[in-house]
Model the fold of this input.
Amino acid sequence: MSRKILPFCLLFLLVTAGFAQPKLKVLPEAIFDIGDYYQGQRAEKKLSVKNVGTDTLRISDVRAQCGCTATMMTDKILGTGKEGTLSITFDTHAYDGKVTKQVYITSNDASSPKTTIQFTANVMKVLTFTPDFVSFDQCKVDSTYTRLITITNPSKTQSIKILSLDVKSDQIKTSLFKNELMPGEQTQLQVTFRSDKAGTFSGSIELSTDHPLMPKFDLKYNSWVNRK
Done:
């Protein structure tokens, strides 16, 4: 090889090495929606993390926004063109409605040393109650009072049956207008209170359902009864 060509070859190799960089890419995408989940369910999602750069990708940390989201990365050192699996688990028990969470990946990708993955979920209650508490205020002895509670099935796909109602008090009587709710349907629960003595009383109405996640619900009530 000519002595003149040799320096150019060395310069080319040095320049090429200088431009060799790892590049992290999340597949299929870094922002996504995981759909509808009932409160109490665990949502799981698997993603691929690929090195689309020209040098070895080294992942130093994978961290979730909060303790309700767990993450696990199968491989943290990825050669050019290689992929690893990122597993994300989201615990829905403390949430209701639309939720947005983030997962952060720290790596030696110089262009993006901290990659953010963002996902949304819609957390639904198995049944909703409006109001969610039954109150009988300023009642009188030997008088009857009635409250109506609207019960809604918020699911878009699953029906639910209310199998029974149980109240451990002679002061409370209940009547359910409809016990099977199709997706999106509502019914009303009539709660009647009557007391032959004054005082403050409280308790709960237990609803049993055929839903495997929430077979029982407790609807709380209280009352304040005057002598006159």
In short: The chain has two domains: 21-124, 128-226. Residues 12-17 have pLDDT under 50 and may be disordered. The helical segments are 5-19. The longest strand covers residues 97-107.
